[in-house]
Amino acid sequence: MFVYTIRRIIQTIPVMIGVSLVVFLMMHLIPGDPAQIIAGEAAQEEQVEQTRERLGLNEPLPVQYATFVGNAVQGDLGNSIRSGRSVTSLIGDRFWITVELAFYSTLLSIFIGLIAGIISATRRNSFLDMSLMIIALFGLSMPNFWLGLILIQYLALNIGWLPVSGWGTPQQILLPVITLGTAGAAIIARMTRSSMLEVIHQDYIRTARAKGVKERYVVYKHALRNALIPVVTVVGLQFGVLLGGAVLTETVFAINGLGRLVVEAINQRDFPVVQGSVLVLSLLFVLVNFLVDISYRILNKRIELD
Amino acid sequence: MENENMESNESIIKVDNLQTSFFTHKGEIKAVDGVHFDVPAGKTLGIVGESGSGKSITSLSIMRLIDDPGRIKGGEIIFKGENLLEKSEAEMRSIRGNKISMIFQEPMTSLNPVYTIGDQIAEAYQIHEGTSKKEGLRKAVDMLKLVGIPSPERRVKAYPHELSGGMRQRAMIAIALACDPELLVADEPTTALDVTIQAQILRLISRLQDELGMSMMLITHDLGVVAETCDYVAVMYAGKIVEYADVYTLFSNPKHPYTVGLLKSLPRHDIDQDELEVIQGMVPRPDNLPEGCRFAPRCPFARDMCHERLPDLEDLEGGNQVRCWIHTDQWDGPEVNVKDDYGSAQSSTS
To answer: In terms of CA atoms, which chain B residue is nearest residue A199?
Structure first.
């Protein structure tokens, strides 16, 4: 297990290098002169040169990359062009809101997804099963910003039960969490169902029945624990996606999370902020994947090192 | 229909006209079609047949573990005087793993990968004897010792993937025998194992059978296994029993052409053989059974009557019960000694 963990950590290194490269090159691949953009469109030739000098943009690319990575490792992601604040502190302000949002949404997806999946699998091909799976299909297909708008329209504006936007109080949390959690719940429900149906035909389930185990325990003790192994992967990936992908939902509900920070930065052409946020979000995703692999390994003791 | 010798013994289980079918969109598939047999107390009955003969479905029917779309359509399974087919699901649960136990073919997949061997044995005690988990685990150690697993105190905490195939099958046997069952149904218990391990496991099962005084049903396609372990043999073909006899009679004086074909296809040590004989053709698919005798399409002796009408299982003088027209008064062909003429008949038809 220890060796596996070390190996898995080593495996993340090339990914992180790749991510940092792409993020670094972003600034240079986008049309236009970065120094000109940073200095502002109205800036004089000299000011642009000054900016270039100050930011080290006249250095060769590999040197710039080395500086970028060196600073990033020390927690310095540069300063915002617009506000002048350090990107690290900007991200720090927003980070926990996004994590909270992702966490509650994932929790909701697990809760609803598991229940629906188990009900569907144990009552396979019944009316209930089919209804749940059709609902899940809707949940999966609905773009979440649209779902968010619909929820705001009906639950917030028309009926007035819940606030339209913001973050903090339980009432404010509810709508964004439903918006973000729906797709996850649908994926988990479908995954749980198919995984359960696969497991229920395994030989060891027959062994359990031949032992005289009650059907309820066959399902919840013998089948579910095995069926959950692939579901854990989906839950983890879902969480990773939510950490980085709540851009639209945060915008719709005016939540000051990381996603919204990225959108604002892009609109304002605030490159250091875009770079910093994308880097942080990517590394978060890598980290979540790593944790998923580790937990998968703990759950499923059969996985051997390959 | 019943053999006289058999009825004098008290039987632990008596299966009468068992019919198990699968109902698919293609229609009814008769996997087990009117099977009769009984297992005398303390004895071992072997059920022999190729894949698809219905032998595994027969054993699962006894446990009432037939999954959808399968259903036991009719017949009786009398276990100690009571018809299992009339039991409620709860009553069946208290019998399974307690009075009738089953071991399966695939030790690699028959144990739950996420629970320890100890947990899986202890569960049987928790269900049927109401013991605590701690007490169950203590008894599990004893069971592991009984089935010959070395250092049982350590292995009780092992997960299935940490054990070899032979050890897993021993663990399976420990689960099955935990509650001291009266009947053990072993469905190809050694098929998936290495040959050397097969012999060990068979010896273990036989020894435990004697020690615990169990009766046993051994489902196998391997006549060698039958010769070593069984007292009686039922040969199944395409959902029906075609021959039934005690093991000595069956091996020395087989009457059904299929039984003879099976025996001929065994390698022998007592005579020189350049190649093994095979039974031509394939087992018919259960959704497309021949009208007459189900073995007729592959039988070297088959005549028109065989293709048209299905013979009954009839008692013969030697103690065999055979389902074959050759041994009836109605046989319209030349006189045949199935055992001696099989080889020449086969080479002339093929």
So the answer is: B112
Same domain, A47 and A125: no
Q: Is B295 a domain residue? A: yes
Does B31 fall in a domain?
A: no
Q: What is the ipTM of this complex?
A: 0.86
Q: Decide if pLDDT at B7 tops 50.
A: no
Strands B27-40 and B44-48 turn out to be unpaired
Strands B215-220 and B44-48 turn out to be parallel
**Looking at the DSSP assignment, which residues form a beta bridge with residue B163?**
none
Residue B172 counted as domain residue: yes
Show residues of chain A in contact with B98, CB under 8 Å: 212
The strand pair at B240-246 and B321-322 is best described as antiparallel
The Cα B1–Cα B142 span in angstroms is 44
Check CB contact of B93 with chain A, cutoff 8 Å.
yes
A172 shares a domain with A113? yes
Comparing C-alpha atoms, which of A224, A197, A217, A199 is closest to residue B93? A217
Block mean pLDDT (10 aa), chain A, length 306? 86 90 84 76 82 82 89 87 87 89 94 94 92 93 89 87 82 90 93 94 93 92 90 87 80 88 86 88 87 81 52
**B83-113 pLDDT tens trace:** 999 999 999 999 999 999 999 988 889 999 9
CB spacing of A207 vs B111 below 8 angstroms = yes
CA Rg value for chain A: 24
Q: What residue spans of chain B are helical by DSSP H?
A: 4-8, 55-62, 89-95, 117-128, 133-146, 152-155, 165-177, 195-212, 223-229, 247-252, 257-264, 304-308, 338-349
Boundary residue ending a domain (B178, B209, B231)? B178
Cα B32 to Cα A7: distance, rounded to the nearest angstrom? 53
Sheet containing B100-103: give its strands across.
B100-103, B183-187, B215-220, B44-48, B232-237, B240-246, B321-322, B314-315
pTM of the model: 0.80
Find, among A165, A153, A227, the residue nearest to A197 by Cα: A227
* CA A193-A194-A198 angle, 5° bins: 120
